[in-house]
């Protein structure tokens, strides 16, 4: 059984949505290092997605070091990857730019954006507390 749900959003690919949901589950503690990750077949069935998409998701998560694959043991959650400071800044830059553009599009103020970011950070922290991490 897949320990996360897919919340379909228009305008975003199924692949991106599943990658986001899996990453959120790992960061939130629903999936812990060493936990088994669903197989391609199980992921496709549980989320009602095409097996090719499920395969691409798993391969992407392995490439990004969120998952590890071991012959005979299957795929499991890896220790969260640690990016160097410069890598973190580079990776965040594009995401932050997209957030700022979207915030301006909807007329949100900087204070509203900061509050929203803090709220989402707290919700991730709450997921860890509920799952037993701290």
Summarize this, please?
The chain is mainly alpha-helical and 134 residues long.
Instruction: Compute the number of helices.
Output: 5
Largest sheet: 2 strands, antiparallel
When the domains are counted, the total is: 2
Poorly predicted residue ranges: none
What global shape is seen? globular
Name the helicity range.
Answer: 55-70%
What is the CATH T-level topology of the largest domain? Arc Repressor Mutant, subunit A
Radius of gyration: 16 Å
The helix-and-strand class reads mainly alpha
Percent of sequence in beta strands: 5-15%
Calculate the mean pLDDT score and round it. Answer: 85
Topology overview:
Blueprint: H1 14-28, H2 40-47, H3 51-63, E1 67-70, E2 74-77, H4 85-106, H5 110-131
Helix pairs in contact: 1-3, 2-3
